[in-house]
Amino acid sequence: MFPMLPRWLLVPAAIGVILVNAAVFAAFWPPPAPPPNASRAQRAYFAYCARCHGVEGQGTWRVTLLLIRPGDLSDTRRMQGLSDQYLFDFIKNGGASFGKPGMPAFGFYLSDPEIQDLVRFLRALPANQ
Fold this sequence. Notes:
This protein is an all-alpha fold. The chain has one domain (about 30-129): Cytochrome Bc1 Complex, Chain D, domain 2 (Orthogonal Bundle). The chain has helices at about 5-30, 40-50, 50-55, 60-65, 75-80, 85-95, 110-125.
């Protein structure tokens, strides 16, 4: 038979099981779908960005479960402080090269013109609120 766990270990074990189940649940939750008349940049945003940043750019509960806090793309003041080149490089190369390792690199999935379209879409995102 299996040895009995000490009582003090039951609570941390239960919390661990709950956290693992929540992470699996979040990983398999379907991503939001773009509207039918979405532009190419908006479809790219929904495909690559909306899972973490949310449909409106304010972040999602999914990444909160993983203890990641994505940048608020709907914050006009914050977005004005970031150059187009910075956003382009951040999307292409990921956050690790900027000291923010939670953001993956998308240069493998998106071409340079697609990233430029995405940057223009992000600039318009706060105005859409």
